[in-house]
Every structure is written in structure tokens, then in C-alpha cells.
Amino acid sequence: MGNWxxxxxxxxxxxxxxxxxxxxxxxxxxxxxxxxxxxxxxxxYKNLETKRIQNKSRKIDSxxxxxxxxxxxxxxxxxxxxxxxxxxxxxGFADPVKRRDSLTINSQFELASVSKMFTATAIMILKxxxxxxxxxxxxxxxxxxxxxxxxxxxxxxxxxxxxxxxxLADEHWPDKHIPLTNRGMIQLFxxxxxxxxxxxxxxxxxCNTNYAMLCSIVERVSKMDFDEFVKKRIxxxxxxxxxxxxxxxxxxxxxxxxxxxxxxxxxxxxxxxxVPKDYLNGVMGDxxxxxxxxxxxxxxxxxxxxxxxxxxxxQEAYSPGSPNHRRRRDNYGFGWRIRMESDSAVxxxxxxxxxxxxxxxxxxxxxxxxxxxxxxxxxGSEHFWEIINDNSIRFSPASVNPRVELNRKE
Length: 410
What we know:
The protein is of the alpha+beta class. It has a single domain (63-406), classed as DD-peptidase/beta-lactamase superfamily (Beta-lactamase, 3-Layer(aba) Sandwich). The protein contains 12 helices and 14 strands. The protein has a 7-stranded antiparallel β-sheet with strand order 2-1-14-13-12-11-10, with helices on both faces. It has a 3-stranded antiparallel β-sheet with strand order 5-9-6. Strand 3 (93-95) and strand 4 (100-102) form a beta hairpin. Helix 3 (116-128) runs parallel beside helix 7 (208-222) and helix 3 crosses helix 8 (226-235). The radius of gyration is 29 Å and the shape is globular.
């Protein structure tokens, strides 16, 4: 009994000595690590991404500085990739003639045809609510229209064959000092019945009439003015606080210049001319939306995160609406052009009354470039696609809370 007790005491003493040695080694090891100044992994990754962002931002900045010097680029730019806002900058002036009133990242530009993606989104919202069917004859919504067999889908994809309302109005709108409205446009079609370009779904013809008609469908189905519907169902949930659709009162007179946003300037020879109001500005759906680069980025964030419509609905918007044709380089979905030379790029350009706009997206690589200008002539889109296609600097996916991103400080 006495020997067993002695052996137990010896074993306990050995464990205590060994434990003290491990404590000493752990302490020494900890002190050594501190002396090495090793950073936590989170800091290492953060520093790497910050450096990449700075390098990418400098590359993009050099492109636009060169365009400013060579072409007189005058506008605002935003580039984002993988959930990160990489670059945002304003170049030039709200008044490029007198070179005064510097543009800012919050300057509001007329989007021209980039407005069409919002009209298409409004239609998709109503489709998800069960109030519209893509393949229904539009006479269900606009019964006075003197054409049969045209569907909502064909309006969305520019396959209706309808002629240009602008030409119809130039010939028949009686007083160009009174703005043409969507209702007035439909009355012109009802009264004069201009010949269609082709039978419904018989071809592709990009035509503003299609999206002006979609605007009227939104109004009749929702029983809301189009600008109010878009504000309530798109701008507000996407936190697009600097965006609006310009609405001309029916009794207003076309004179002077637009009282909102920055002014558009046409290049005529060597001169820049500020563009006055136009009677066609009263038609909505195909144009006449004002926004900023930051708000357009919020729109994309809202789309990517299912805040406006479901991902399933959105995928159809990015799908070609026409059969592939060797003579037609790109295709058209719902409010987006489909870049056929890429497996994942969608885009839209806009031009109207001194404004040019560009919205380019690579869905797979999560790249976005938004360029808004208030001069009718300037840099071509090939420079912008070079930025989208540049893979020399890559970013790991960011963990983005869409609500935080939509509320990003301006």
C-alpha cells in the first residue's frame, strides 16, 4: 500500500513538470508570433483588395482622362465589379459651352433609350402580379388600336412591326407647340392607321413605338400614371432617390428649355447648341427618364438581389427575343440588348436631344459600366467594352447586403 502511494506521487509530479514546460513553450511561442507582426487573414485580404481596387480605378481613370483630352468627353462614369464600387467620377461641365457649373456624381441626365429597361421592368412586375400576360393580344389593353395579333412580348422584343410614332406625329400632329402624349400618340394610330413594317413576329425592328405602347399598357392595367407607378414600384424599393420620369402636362406649351436636370447639347459643326424642349418629350416609356450613375447602380443591385422581380422572371429579360441571324450581330430581350459575341453581356445605349447614355453589364463576371453624357457627340462604345473585357485585375466576390448597398452614402 505504501509503495503504490509513492508511485502515484511520482507520476503526479511528472505531469506537473511537463505541464509547466508546455505552458512555458506556449508563452514563448505566443511571444515569438507577436514579434513577427503577423496580420490576421482578414486584414491581409482587405489590404489585397484595396490595392487591386486602387489599381483598377487608376486604369479606368486613365482611359477617361485620355478621352476627355482627345474627344472632349463630358459626363459622369461609374464602374462596379463583383459587388464592389470601383470607380465613380464626373468630368466636365453642365454647361460645356461656357465651361461652368461642374458636373457631379449626382448630376441628373436624360437617359434616352436606357429608359426602356425600366418600362420593361414595370411590365414584368405586372406579369408577376398576374395582371398581364406576355402572349396576350395588346388590344385587350388598348382596344382602339387598329392592328390585330400584336402581343406584349412582341412589343418588348421589337417584333411588333409597328411604325415609328415620331414620323406619324411629324406628319399629322397639328400643333408642334403642344406636347404629344401617349394618349395623343394612340389617337394618331387610330385615326391614320399607318402601314406596319411587317406582320406581327415577322421580323425585328427597333422602334420607340413599342415601348411607348408598353407605357400605356402599364397605365391602363395599373390604373396609375406611368411616372407614379415607376416611382412607387421601382424607384422607391431600389432607393433611386434622384430619379424621375418627366411628364408634360397635356395643356403645357413647348417653349424654352427643360427645367430639370442638366441640359443636353447638340454638336453642329464646331458649335455646341443647347437643345430646347421638343413636343415629342411628352411621350413616355421609350425615353424621358432622368437619373444619376449612382441610382442606375442601385437599380442593378435591386435586380441582382430579387428586390424588384424574381430571378426567374429576370432571366427571360436577358434571353434573345429573336432567332439568331448572321446579319444581326446582337439580339434583344426585355429592355436589354443581348451581346451575342459574349455569353453573358447585356447592355443598352441611348441618344436623345443632346444626351447619350451607356449601360453595360457582364452578368457572369459581375461587371458594370455606366456612362452618362450631355453632348450628342463623343466617345464611342468600343472604349467602354474594352473596360468591361479587361480581366488583368480580378476581385474575389464581395459579401454584399443589398439593403446596405442601396442605402450607400452619396
